[in-house]
Design a protein that fits this description.
- By secondary structure, the protein is α+β, with helices and mostly antiparallel strands.
- Helix content is 27%, strand content 29%.
- The chain has a six-stranded antiparallel β-sheet with strand order 1-2-6-5-4-3, with helices on one face. A five-stranded antiparallel β-sheet has the order 7-11-10-9-8, covered by helices on one side.
- β10 and β11 form a beta hairpin.
- α2 runs antiparallel to α3.
- The longest helix is centred in the first third of the chain and has 22 residues.
- It is globular and about 50 Å long.
C-alpha cells in the first residue's frame, strides 16, 4: 500500500529555505482538484493514464501551493506559461508524474526561485542509456554507482531532468549540459544531496531520494555570488 500524501520534510531532505515539495499517489487522492479549464484540458488527452497523471499532478501542485499561499487549492492561480511550465505569480512551480493506472504518482515542488522536480520509476532501460546523459568526466560516478544498472541510470536521469526542468529547457538542452557531483561509493543511497553545474544556468543543489520503486528529485538554483 503506498504511503499517504507526503510532504518532503525540509530538514530530512535538506531542502533549500524557500523550497517545499509534495508527493501524491493515486490511492491518496479523494478526487482531483481541478478548475473547469483544467478539466477541459484533461478531457483532451486520449489515454486514460495521461488523464490520471495530469489530474494527480495538478492536484499535488494545487494542494502544495495552496498551503504556501494560505488559500483553498481550487483558488490557486495556477496557469500555464508560454513554455508550457506551470505558472503562479511570485512563485516557481514544477510538476512531475509517472506510472500507469493505480500506480500513478505525482511530485510537485514550489520555491521563490527556479525549481525543478522529477519522478521516475525504476524499470528496465536500454543498457546504453547512460551514453546520452553522462559526460566523460562523470563516468567515474557511474562506475561508483555500480555501472549502467537500471537503478543507477534511472537515478542519474532523474537528477539531471530535475535541473533541466528547473531551468525550463527540459532535455532539449541535453543531459550532458548538466554536470553532477554525488557522494557515492556503491549502490545509490536512499537519500542524499547532489551538487550540479549546468552549462546555461550555473550552480544548483538537488535533493533526491527513493520512495519504493520511485526515484524523486527536487532541484533549486543556488544564489549567485554577484
Amino acid at each position: 500500500m503506498p504511503p499517504p500524501m507526503t510532504d518532503l520534510d525540509a530538514r530530512r531532505w535538506g531542502l533549500g529555505p524557500t523550497v517545499a515539495a509534495r508527493l501524491l499517489h493515486a490511492s491518496d487522492a479523494d478526487g482531483p482538484v481541478l478548475t473547469p479549464d483544467e478539466r477541459d484540458r484533461m478531457a483532451g488527452f486520449g489515454h486514460a493514464d495521461r488523464r490520471r497523471q495530469f489530474a494527480l499532478g495538478r492536484t499535488a501542485a494545487r494542494t502544495l501551493v495552496g498551503a504556501r499561499l494560505g488559500v483553498a487549492p481550487d483558488a490557486v492561480p495556477l496557469a500555464v506559461a508560454a513554455d508550457g511550465a506551470p505558472d503562479v505569480p511570485g512563485l516557481r512551480v514544477s510538476i512531475a508524474h509517472t506510472g500507469h493506472g493505480p500506480d500513478v504518482a505525482a511530485l510537485a515542488a514550489v520555491a521563490s526561485g527556479p525549481v525543478g522536480a522529477d519522478l521516475e520509476r525504476v524499470a528496465p532501460r536500454r543498457p546504453d542509456l547512460w551514453t546520452r546523459i553522462v559526460r566523460p568526466d562523470e563516468r567515474p560516478l557511474l562506475d561508483a554507482l555500480g555501472g549502467p544498472t537500471d537503478d543507477a541510470q534511472t537515478l542519474l536521469w532523474t537528477l539531471k531532468e530535475a535541473v533541466l526542468k528547473g531551468q525550463r529547457t527540459g532535455f532539449r538542452a541535453g543531459g550532458r549540459s548538466v554536470r553532477l557531483r554525488l557522494d557515492a561509493d556503491g549502490a545509490p543511497p536512499d537519500r542524499g544531496l547532489a551538487t550540479v553545474t549546468a552549462d546555461t544556468s550555473g550552480a544548483w543543489t538537488v535533493a533526491y531520494g527513493r520512495a519504493g520503486d520511485l526515484w524523486l528529485a527536487v532541484a533549486w538554483a543556488n544564489p549567485s555570488d554577484d
